[in-house]
């Protein structure tokens, strides 16, 4: 039953990726910006959660809500200051700015509190239960349910609500969206707020699950979330979920076969293969340009 | 036509003069090792920037894994001098060629992807290359490989001049225009009889070749190479040169490589604020000049002759 | 007349998912003809062009150009065989100069190699010089030589349309496909375009197939017209026949057929 | 209803509208004709708040709308059908129409108007679940107009509704324009197809390189030789 | 000047000390930790009147965790700033990138934490005349750990789980395996992980099914903390052991006190050691930075004292003399142990074996080299 344990491992790893990728793909889908700073919002969220639990003695859920709220504000702020001016610039200019913002947040943070790690407190006594001989931790069940729950909520927001329609309209054609009476700036801010609060939530949950947080913790998950989002198809919410899970399972499968050092390489090979056969990601519409 | 011929020779003469002056300053000890090393670093960064400029700026292929090809050049050349004991110049050549082959290998399957999908695939390939070196004990794995310092100002400068000359000559020919047309509108380029795949792969291969050469110069200048030197942050650094200089501007790539090398070395002295300053520079430049320092213009457009040409064109209109 | 055809479209069709965009399309073009392709929006006209130029591969049927099968070839190879086109939505190389736009199209007629360009061998200079001269000639025909150093995107719309045609010509076609060349032009500009099309046909010995919704233009210069509706050919004939064809009137023209031709 | 006085609009250094003035009265169809690049689209974009004039005034229902955001102007009753249709391609016909009513709150009114749009354009009703990107050009144009109607405009700005459409479709579109107008919507219509435009309009303006060079009733302009030469195909 | 005058480093009444460290980039946390230790030590020394009456003046460069920047930084420190000595870098690779520069410029180079052999001795086996280090070399701790496992714990089947990105971990692992097998033990699994990773469960699942009686985990506390925690969660209850890379109060926070029971480390010192010198350091550090010191902090701190002691004995800030004095360092008491510099410029310190009990390190035994 080792493979079953490994599958469980893979899904819990993947649901963390998915959680970060959900917020990523949201922002990504709407302004088509590879927001590298998303990983840093995730990091900041994680630290907000940490300080509010350890420093201010808040309970876990209050800390989670606080982190989400502050990250939402932080995300909106980043968009206002750094990205808004660049809306009509090339996407690659926005990308470089995003990299700049990402460095700025990391190193301002290091400047303030040092580069060392911090350990999340144990807020729940970690229970594990056995299923078919595999140890399953309650935390990973929690993470998976939170990810799926958020995915459903997001999907609902984007496809069924008025603000969601506005978001999709803005993502396709900002100018025409304005002609519909949509306030484009507010819609984009709302998108950043939602995406960033998800990143904040992911940060707190990550801390809870993996314990260790540090100022550079957002870099790798940021890249992984980008991969998951692309894998699933840019801007497609269930795609990010599936992309994240797939990535987690593939990475685990590689480690489980004893090639842990090749794990990231294998993940990329899979990614590239999928892209070659499905150039718009798993769930991407065939957006072949109409000539 | 004559004008263009002259431009090429003017470049060669200017290069020769710059070389002579710097060499003289080095020989007389006015430039110490530290200054010389900074100049070599600058030359390496220029090579990297110019080679990526061909891929992104000219051909419009969003590659964010350039450090991978640099790694190939660095490792292959190091193996040739350290393990096989062959001369440095051979190592540079073979390093470049093997990097080019790696470029072909990566380019052929991935270049049919577009935009962010291509970006993530190139990033992935660069990481794969890095992880391969990480897992080869022959080159030291994670601990890296010690390399003797063979790079001199002369080697670095000549390689840089060749890189610029080749990329610029390529760009200013029908082949370069074919690449430009791919960047501008792939469907239309195809419809005009341009073999778009061929030119994408060609630009990618030439870009990789010079990234490999830069890697060879790099590995023989810093005593040790480790896979960690060639991660995605390195690729981002190179990307930043190109975008900051102005997408599509070769002189922009060169200028921003020079400026950022200076900024970066200068900031070494302010260790704790370094990355904060650096990122602020990036953000501010991009916010206030999103098209990059030079836009799509070349330095020659700013010279009197360039102005004359433009003026003349407007006059006719 | 039937054996000197330059293009033969034999029972061609294509589907996108469940949608049959074009089916059972037959068409023959003869050397030197000027033929119109009309039909309601979404009838499959542009799609037919895309099949003729290799952008789409037909799911059935054959396209024979000068005796050679061209379906299945990539677009650049089709162009090199001698079919070139313009686009319904202008697709210029917008950041490049007007001159360079034309040079790109002249690319496949030039011979100097990549190596000779990189090493700046004499053949490079000879080749580039010839390209430049030839390209300027094309621009002169379209009265665009005054703007040759301007970026293509800075041209006014009408000139951009003309540049697209100039560029298509520079690719050295025997068959030229024009997709709504007069779209967005006012009647006066359209009239100028008509005479230009007639002129280049003579000068370059071209066969021309054009899509257009402007009936003044189509009826005015086309010798024959094909009418597509819902992906199927519903009529073929001279302008006079088409104008009076009840099927075409019902599907496309409506009652108010322009009085003057 | 709408009064534009001496507006200047720039794109960077390009001076696109140069001291342009015009008026639209309630209930009219006014058409703007002019060559490519004359500035017609620019004017409409300025009216709907997508562009800001550098100088000059724009009064709508006796209130200045210069500097107002696009969404405010839409609420005030000006609705703009942009050049090239610009439907939201990956959204269904129905969703596009809903977006048209984005700034409205009256649920019942919206439903009623939706029904009215479907009545005017039965084809849209037939295709209401289809993604609008896969509609034909004429259908997209209908959708763009339907979408604008959903905002319940008092003034409808139409930018080249006949562009790229088959003759039959052009006739349909113009018929609908007249219908909408009859039901009480004032219309400012930009057209290349001057023949058609003049035949439905009450008044017309001719714009050349950012300036009004001629204006009058549609009948007058249709009869003018200059206009015939320049815009009606040169058949004097 | 090209530093041919022997790297005077002293001008007027200060002695310039370079610090070429990983203050940003990948391993910024190691570099900044060392730098905190360095700053504290220099502050203390200067407050006590300096060395031979001269104040120490630190000049830091950030090498961004990159070899090229490390070389360049070393050139700046030697050519431009004319420092007497360079402290750095944190990792062996970035130190190796400076060794030649230091040798050529005749400037002392001391790596606080670079453990690879080729820091002090080049690939041909020749001594790098100006390069030193403050930390152990790799093999010693691995050997000690293997002997401890076999002799004290009576282990027959062991597994190794090492940090692949670090030559330090590799050195320890190799020595452990060699000694363990030579003594008749069996290595049932040899796995590796990548630094900065956070999820080790899949490899731990593999390790678990190999049923080892003991797992040796050479690596740094940031990952080890998570590994220990996750291993215990997965039901791996066997003894775990590692080297001085484990040493940090953060380890206890990361892994949790309970998970750390039944784990052992080799180290030169323990922050809980009641030894006066150590407690002084811990107090001073906590006062300055409001947190407890980790191993890197201590090594940075010690490096300055090691250097200061040599300068004092040399009598003047002359690179060659200071180097000779460094070579003669003998039984010098530092926070991380009592040090004697051997003929290969490596410190010889005795190792302590510590056991974690309820989150506290407890002294188990002492092993002399
Ligand atoms: N790549 C594609 N994927 C799916 N459907 C397509 C594609 N290309 C064209 N179609 C569909 O094929 C049909 C024919 O389109 P086409 O563009 O050929 O029409 P057309 O006759 O050129 O119309 P118009 O006069 O409006 O330009 C349309 O229904 C269109 O939506
Ligand atoms: N985004 C822009 N940037 C710069 N110049 C522009 C821009 N849009 C339009 N222009 C210029 O402004 C002028 C007016 O353009 P506008 O689009 O309003 O013309 P138009 O009358 O609508 O023409 P058409 O019939 O082609 O639609 C033209 O010279 C055009 O080149
Ligand atoms: Mg068409
Ligand atoms: Mg317009």
TrEMBL record, chain A:
InterPro entries attached to this UniProt entry: ABC_transp_permease, BCAA_transport_permease
Protein origin, superkingdom: Bacteria
Pfam families assigned to the protein according to its UniProt record, in alphabetical order: BPD_transp_2
Subcellular location: Cell membrane
Record carries keyword tRNA processing: no
TM spans (from-to): 6-26, 60-78, 90-112, 132-158, 188-211, 223-249, 261-278
UniProt cross-references to CDD domains, sorted A to Z: TM_PBP1_LivH_like
Keyword terms, alphabetized: Amino-acid transport, Cell inner membrane, Cell membrane, Membrane, Transmembrane, Transmembrane helix, Transport
Membrane topology: Multi-pass membrane protein
Protein's UniProt keywords contain Cell inner membrane: yes
Recorded family membership: Belongs to the binding-protein-dependent transport system permease family. LivHM subfamily.
Name this protein carries in UniProt: Branched-chain amino acid ABC transporter permease
Organism: Chungangia koreensis
Upper taxonomic lineage: Bacteria, Bacillati, Bacillota, Bacilli, Lactobacillales
From TrEMBL, chain B:
Transmembrane segments: 34-56, 63-82, 88-108, 115-133, 153-171, 198-218, 238-263, 275-291
Superkingdom of source: Bacteria
Keywords, alphabetical: Cell membrane, Membrane, Transmembrane, Transmembrane helix
Keyword tRNA processing included in the entry's annotation: no
Pfam families (alphabetical): BPD_transp_2
Topology class, membrane: Multi-pass membrane protein
Subcellular location: Cell membrane
CDD domains tied to this protein: TM_PBP1_LivM_like
PANTHER family per UniProt: HIGH-AFFINITY BRANCHED-CHAIN AMINO ACID TRANSPORT PROTEIN BRAE (PTHR30482:SF10), HIGH-AFFINITY BRANCHED-CHAIN AMINO ACID TRANSPORT SYSTEM PERMEASE (PTHR30482)
Name of the molecule in the record: Branched-chain amino acid ABC transporter permease
Automatic annotation (TrEMBL), chain C:
A Pfam family of this chain: ABC_tran
Lipid metabolism is among the record's keywords: no
InterPro entries: AAA+_ATPase, ABC_AA/LPS_Transport, ABC_transporter-like_ATP-bd, BCA_ABC_TP_C, P-loop_NTPase
GO MF annotation: an example: ATP binding
SUPFAM superfamilies, sorted: P-loop containing nucleoside triphosphate hydrolases
Protein keywords: ATP-binding, Nucleotide-binding, Transport
Domain ABC transporter: 7-255
CDD domains reported in the protein's UniProt record: ABC_Mj1267_LivG_branched
Coiled-coil blocks: none
Top-level taxon of origin: Bacteria
Keyword Transport (UniProt): yes
Record protein name field: ABC transporter ATP-binding protein
Species in which this protein is naturally found: Chungangia koreensis
From TrEMBL, chain D:
GO molecular function, one term: ATP binding
InterPro entries registered for this protein in UniProt: AAA+_ATPase (IPR003593), ABC_branched_ATPase_LivF/BraG (IPR030660), ABC_transporter-like_ATP-bd (IPR003439), ABC_transporter-like_CS (IPR017871), BCAA_Transport_ATP-bd_LivF (IPR052156), P-loop_NTPase (IPR027417)
PROSITE patterns membership: ABC_TRANSPORTER_1, ABC_TRANSPORTER_2
rRNA-binding among keywords: no
Span of domain ABC transporter: 2-234
Pfam family, any one: ABC_tran
Superkingdom of source: Bacteria
Key words of the record: Amino-acid transport, ATP-binding, Nucleotide-binding, Transport
Family of this protein: Belongs to the ABC transporter superfamily.
Name the UniProt record assigns to this protein: ABC transporter ATP-binding protein
The species this protein was found in: Chungangia koreensis
């Amino acid at each position: 039953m080792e493979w079953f344990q490994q599958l469980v491992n893979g899904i819990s790893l993947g649901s963390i990726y998915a959680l970060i990728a959900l917020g990523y793909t949201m922002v990504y889908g709407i302004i088509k910006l590879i927001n590298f700073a998303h990983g840093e919002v995730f990091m900041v969220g994680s630290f907000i959660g940490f300080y509010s639990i350890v420093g201010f003695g808040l309970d876990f859920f209050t800390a989670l809500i606080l982190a989400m709220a502050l990250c939402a504000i932080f995300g909106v702020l980043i968009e206002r200051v750094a990205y808004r001016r660049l809306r009509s610039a090339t996407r690659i200019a926005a990308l470089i700015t995003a990299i700049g913002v990402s460095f700025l947040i990391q190193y301002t943070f290091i400047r303030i509190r040092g580069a060392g790690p911090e350990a999340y407190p144990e807020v729940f006594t970690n229970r594990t239960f056995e299923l078919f001989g595999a140890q399953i931790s309650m935390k990973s069940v929690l993470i998976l349910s939170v990810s799926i729950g958020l995915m459903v909520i997001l999907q609902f927001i984007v496809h069924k609500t008025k603000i969601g329609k506005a978001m999709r309209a803005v993502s396709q054609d900002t100018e025409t969206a304005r002609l519909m009476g949509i306030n484009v700036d507010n819609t984009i801010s709302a998108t950043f707020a939602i995406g960033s609060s998800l990143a904040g939530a992911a940060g707190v949950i990550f801390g809870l699950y993996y314990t260790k947080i540090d100022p550079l913790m957002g870099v790798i998950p940021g890249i992984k979330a980008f991969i998951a989002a692309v894998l699933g198809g840019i801007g497609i919410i269930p795609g990010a979920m599936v992309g994240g899970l797939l990535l987690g399972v593939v990475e685990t499968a590689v480690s489980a076969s004893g090639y842990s050092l090749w794990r990231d390489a294998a993940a990329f090979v899979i990614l590239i293969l999928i892209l070659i056969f499905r150039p718009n990601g798993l769930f991407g519409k065939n957006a072949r340009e109409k000539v | 036509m004559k004008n263009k011929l002259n431009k090429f020779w003017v470049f060669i003469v200017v290069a020769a003069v710059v070389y002579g002056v710097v060499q003289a300053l080095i020989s007389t000890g006015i430039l110490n090792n530290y200054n010389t090393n900074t100049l070599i670093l600058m030359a390496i960064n220029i090579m990297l920037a110019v080679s990526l400029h061909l891929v992104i700026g000219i051909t419009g292929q969003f590659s964010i894994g350039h450090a991978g090809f640099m790694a190939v050049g660095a490792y292959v050349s190091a193996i040739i001098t350290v393990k096989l004991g062959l001369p440095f110049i051979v190592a540079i050549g073979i390093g470049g060629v093997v990097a080019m082959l790696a470029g072909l290998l990566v380019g052929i399957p991935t270049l049919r992807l577009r935009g962010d999908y291509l970006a993530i695939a190139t990033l992935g390939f660069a990481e794969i290359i890095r992880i391969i070196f990480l897992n080869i004990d022959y080159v030291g794995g994670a601990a890296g490989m010690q390399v003797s310092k063979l790079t001199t100002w002369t080697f670095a400068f000549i390689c840089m001049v060749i890189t610029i000359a080749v990329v610029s000559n390529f760009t200013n020919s029908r082949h370069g225009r074919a690449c430009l047309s791919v960047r501008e509108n792939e469907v239309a380029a195809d419809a005009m009889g341009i073999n778009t795949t061929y030119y994408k792969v060609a630009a990618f291969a030439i870009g990789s070749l010079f990234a490999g050469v830069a890697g060879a110069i790099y590995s023989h200048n810093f005593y040790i190479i480790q896979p960690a030197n060639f991660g995605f942050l390195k690729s981002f650094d190179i990307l930043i040169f190109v975008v900051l200089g102005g997408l599509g501007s070769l002189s922009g790539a060169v200028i921003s490589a020079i400026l950022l090398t200076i900024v970066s070395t200068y900031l070494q002295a302010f260790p704790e604020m370094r990355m904060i300053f650096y990122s602020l520079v990036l953000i501010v430049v991009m916010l206030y000049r999103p098209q990059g320092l030079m836009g799509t213009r070349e330095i020659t457009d700013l010279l009197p002759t360039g102005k004359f040409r433009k003026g003349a064109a407007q006059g006719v209109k | 007349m039937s054996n000197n055809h330059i293009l033969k479209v034999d029972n061609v069709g294509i589907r996108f998912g469940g949608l049959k965009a074009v089916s059972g399309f037959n068409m023959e073009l003869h050397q030197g003809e000027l033929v119109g392709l009309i039909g309601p929006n979404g009838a499959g006209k542009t799609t037919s062009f895309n099949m003729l130029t290799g952008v789409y591969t037909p799911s059935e049927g054959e396209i024979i150009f000068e005796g050679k099968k061209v379906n299945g070839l990539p677009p650049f190879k089709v162009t090199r065989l001698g079919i070139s086109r313009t686009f319904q939505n202008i697709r210029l190389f917008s950041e490049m100069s007007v001159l360079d736009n034309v040079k790109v199209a002249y690319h496949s007629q030039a011979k100097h190699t990549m190596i000779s360009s990189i090493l700046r061998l004499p053949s490079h200079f000879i080749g580039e010089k010839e390209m430049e001269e030839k390209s300027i000639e094309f621009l002169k025909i379209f009265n665009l030589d005054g703007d040759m150093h301007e970026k293509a995107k800075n041209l006014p719309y009408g000139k951009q349309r003309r540049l697209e045609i100039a560029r298509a010509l520079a690719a050295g076609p025997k068959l030229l496909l024009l997709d709504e060349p007069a779209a967005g032009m006012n009647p006066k500009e359209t009239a100028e375009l008509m005479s230009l099309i007639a002129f280049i046909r003579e000068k370059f010995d071209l066969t021309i197939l054009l899509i257009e919704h402007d009936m003044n233009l189509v009826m005015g210069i086309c010798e024959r017209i094909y009418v597509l509706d819902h992906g199927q050919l519903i009529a073929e004939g001279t302008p006079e026949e088409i104008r009076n064809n009840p099927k075409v009137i019902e599907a496309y023209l409506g009652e108010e057929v322009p009085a003057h031709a | 209803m709408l009064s534009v006085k001496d507006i200047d609009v720039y794109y960077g250094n390009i001076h696109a509208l140069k001291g342009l003035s015009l008026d639209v009265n309630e209930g009219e169809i006014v058409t703007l004709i002019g060559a490519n690049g004359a500035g017609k689209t620019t004017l409409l974009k300025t009216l709907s708040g997508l562009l800001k004039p550098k100088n000059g005034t724009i009064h709508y229902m006796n209130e200045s709308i210069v500097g107002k955001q696009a969404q405010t102007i839409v609420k005030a009753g000006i609705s703009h059908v942009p050049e090239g249709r610009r439907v939201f391609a990956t959204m269904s016909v129905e969703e596009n129409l809903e977006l048209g009513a984005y700034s409205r709150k009256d649920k019942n009114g919206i439903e009623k108007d939706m029904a009215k749009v479907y009545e005017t354009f039965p084809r849209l009703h037939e295709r209401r679940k289809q993604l609008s990107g896969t509609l034909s050009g004429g259908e997209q144009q209908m959708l763009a107009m339907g979408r604008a109607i959903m905002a319940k405009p008092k003034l409808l700005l139409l930018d080249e509704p006949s562009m790229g459409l088959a003759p039959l479709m052009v006739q349909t579109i113009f018929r609908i324009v007249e219908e909408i107008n009859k039901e009480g919507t004032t219309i400012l219509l930009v057209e290349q197809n001057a023949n058609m435009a003049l035949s439905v309009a009450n008044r017309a303006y001719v714009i050349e390189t950012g300036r009004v060079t001629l204006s009058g009733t549609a009948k007058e302009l249709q009869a003018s030789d200059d206009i015939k030469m320049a815009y009606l195909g040169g058949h004097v | 000047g090209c530093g041919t005058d022997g790297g005077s480093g002293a001008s007027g009444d200060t002695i310039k000390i370079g610090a070429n460290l990983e203050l940003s980039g990948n391993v910024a946390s190691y570099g900044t930790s060392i730098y905190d230790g360095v700053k504290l030590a220099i502050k203390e020394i200067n407050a006590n009147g300096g060395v031979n009456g001269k104040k120490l003046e630190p000049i830091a460069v950030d090498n961004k965790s990159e070899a090229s920047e490390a070389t360049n930084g070393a050139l700046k420190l030697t050519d431009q700033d004319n420092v007497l000595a360079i402290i750095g870098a944190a990792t062996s690779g970035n130190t190796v990138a400076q060794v030649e520069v230091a040798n050529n410029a005749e400037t002392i180079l001391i790596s606080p934490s670079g453990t690879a052999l080729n820091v002090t001795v080049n690939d041909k086996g020749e001594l790098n005349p100006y390069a030193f280090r403050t930390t152990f070399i790799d093999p010693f701790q691995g050997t000690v750990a293997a002997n401890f496992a076999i002799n004290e714990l009576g282990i027959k089947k062991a597994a190794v789980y090492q940090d692949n990105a670090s030559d330090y971990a590799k050195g320890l692992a190799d020595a452990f395996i060699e000694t363990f097998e030579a003594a008749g033990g069996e290595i049932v699994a040899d796995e590796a992980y990548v630094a900065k990773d956070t999820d080790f469960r899949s490899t731990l699942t593999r390790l678990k099914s190999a049923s080892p009686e003991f797992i040796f985990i050479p690596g740094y506390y940031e990952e080890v903390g998570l590994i220990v925690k996750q291993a215990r969660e997965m039901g791996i209850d066997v003894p775990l052991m590692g080297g001085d890379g484990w040493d940090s109060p953060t380890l206890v926070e990361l892994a949790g006190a309970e998970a750390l029971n039944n784990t052992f480390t080799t180290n030169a010192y323990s922050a809980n050691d009641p030894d006066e010198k150590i407690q002084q350091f811990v107090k001073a550090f906590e006062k300055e930075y409001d947190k407890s010191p980790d191993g890197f902090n201590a090594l940075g701190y010690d490096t300055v004292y090691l250097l200061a002691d040599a300068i004092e004995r040399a009598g003047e800030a002359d690179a060659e003399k200071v180097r000779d004095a460094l070579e003669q360092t003998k039984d010098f008491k530092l926070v991380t142990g009592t040090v004697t510099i051997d003929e290969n410029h490596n410190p010889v310190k005795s190792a302590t074996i510590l056991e974690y009990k309820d989150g506290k390190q407890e002294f188990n035994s002492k092993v002399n080299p």
